[in-house]
Amino acid sequence: MRLPLLCSAVALLAAFAGTGCAGNQPKPDYTDFRMSRPRSVLVLPPLNNSTDVRGTYGWLTTVTRPLAEMGYYVFPIAMVDQFLKENGLPGPGEMHEAPLDKYAQVFGTDSVLYVTLEQYGTKYKLLASATSVQLKAALVDARTGVTLWTGQAFAQQSGSGNSGGGLLGMLVEAAITQVVDNSSDRAHGLSRLANNCLIAGGTGGAGSPAQCFGGHAVLYGPYRPESEAQYEMLARQAVSSGTATASAGVSAPAAAPGKPAPAVEEEVLRADWRKITASSNLRVYLSGGDVLLGAMRDFDGEYLWLTLGGGRRKAVRASEIARVAVVR
Amino acid sequence: VGRGALALSLFALALVAGTGCAPQPTLYHWGAYEELIYESYAKPGATPPEKQIEKLEADYQKARSADKRVPPGWHAHLGYLYFQTGKLDQAQQQFETEKAQFPESTVYMDRLLAKFVKK
User: Fold this and answer.
1) Predicted ipTM of the assembly
2) Residue A11 near residue A160, CB atoms below 8 Å
């Protein structure tokens, strides 16, 4: 017997949804992502603003694969969920509110992925149905709290109901579909497409089952062989476009335009980083080629903490630092 | 400017080619891992842990014969199922394997393994 659910022509639509995706998106800025270079991701169960309570786990159980295939270590979602529940966080709301450094401490994760489901589920009209998944996501550095990446995706799948069987056939088909859908969650399947779009940056395109907007892929993680080349390319790009200093810079000691800064640099060997006086002006040369200008806050043995322009705080892994100089 | 534009377009190309449309070989053998977890949420109790272990162990054989790794979290999750069935030795072994395969899990696995030492 023909399965109407599978055989019915599936029209897939995508549309702008939400307000955050204006047409002219700025070029994705991977600066913070690059500086953090996370190896692992802890995915929290999503906040679910949809009307379908199945969304939380229907979605959560589709996120490991695309993230892991992008090269990240992904903590086992069901264990994490259970662990958090047993430790006083009964649901996604509490989990999203919990202090970030706890996640770093308890799981040793480099980053935490926060997701909110805006839409999840299937709506039925007379003869057809529309399944949609819409979500937004933020990847946050678990140690510094810096947001490394945000993305959103929207995917919709419509059952056309056109089986060629005339009105009666369509009615029967709609009824069967509805029965089937009461036990099987179609948005769960569609979540895979939405996630692939969100995380791997698929753009959908003509004939593609899902499209996403306002999103760009996460960078490759350490288990993807392409990762090294991607990070190198981004570092070179940052140097050649000058964003390395422009985006992060505390203004260097006053220099007349066009003339070299009168600053004097004095390199500090790693063994002496702890001795640098707090709020000294530093130039931190990263092994990737970037240079950060900032004020010294602290060095904890693993991370050098800086205050950048605008009071923004940043932690830089010592292993990514080529040399450090105090600017006088 | 020319070099920058070139680098930029190369980068865009790499992003499209690398992450977008072109099919890539998967890093891992996925088997039933995600769907078993989904089932355990959607229909709690429908598939007992013993049955889930059986399916995962069968997947592991398939992964080995295809010369592929199992995904991050997989060994930990299997260990968690063994733990639920009271097979503590196997649980411990799986947590150790997770840690060896993916050092990123060290802090979490050590936290779990510490409970075994006490016993």
Assistant:
1) 0.82
2) yes
